[in-house]
Design a protein that fits this description.
Helix content is 17%, strand content 31%. By secondary structure, the protein is of the alpha+beta class. It has a single domain, classed as CNF1/YfiH-like putative cysteine hydrolases, CATH 3.60.140.
Length: 220
């Protein structure tokens, strides 16, 4: 991944086979409130970017030559260039997967991860590559027994006492889904207050950054 900036908007960009992904920062403002600054910086048309009402589940919206009507969903599958999709985050992980059948962007909190959103997204595009955007790190993500126990089957190393490594959970689930190449951002949204919104740090008053994915016409 590489840092990019345009017009005062800074984002982290990942290149995947046939697709690109961008993970925004506070510099774009709260993307949920106003997506246009980020869209302009990325060179995307706001009306061609799909979103949804996120409910911490595993439902996916599929978009081919046109955007599907918005509804409750926590992921988007793109199969045609010219469209983009986003998920909003403020500690949860934005995860992008890409394969020969397109790309998917996934909103990955612990509930969505435990409900199987990674496997569903990877299967939808036959993913071989993934990028894990910024989210709350194991340094800051203290959880209860219900959350920790949800990932017991992943083995040692995903939790230390009550501190959960959400990105490591996502990485192992991606590997289980057959994704071979995984690039993590390795950035904690709670620690990096100057750069990211954080639901935990800002006690529920946080804005929302976004993960955005689109197919690269040159590589599609």
């Amino acid at each position: 991944m590489e840092w990019r900036e345009k017009g005062g908007v800074e984002w982290l960009e990942a290149e995947l086979p046939g697709a690109r992904a961008a993970f925004s920062t506070r510099s774009a403002g709260s993307v949920k409130a106003d997506p246009e600054p980020l869209a302009r910086a990325l060179g995307l048309e706001p009306e061609r970017i799909a979103g949804a009402r996120q409910v911490h589940g595993a439902e996916l919206l599929h978009h081919d030559s046109a955007l599907s009507p918005p509804r409750e969903a926590d992921g988007h599958v793109l199969t045609s260039p010219g469209l983009a999709a986003l998920v909003y985050t403020a500690d949860c992980l934005p995860v992008v997967v890409a394969g020969p059948r397109g790309a998917a962007i996934l909103h990955c909190g612990w509930r969505g991860l435990s409900a199987g959103i990674v496997a569903r997204g990877a299967a939808a595009v036959d993913a071989g590559d993934a990028a894990i955007g910024p989210g709350i790190g194991p340094c800051c993500y203290e959880v209860g027994d219900e959350v920790r126990d949800a990932f017991d089957g992943l083995g040692d190393g995903v939790a230390a006492d009550r501190m959960l490594d959400l990105a490591e959970v996502a990485r192992r689930l991606l590997l289980d889904a057959g994704v071979e190449r995984i690039e993590p951002a390795g950035l904690c949204t709670r620690c990096e207050a100057a750069r990211f919104f954080s639901h935990r740090r800002e006690a529920g008053r946080a804005g929302r950054q976004a993960g955005v994915a689109w197919l690269d016409p040159a590589g599609a």
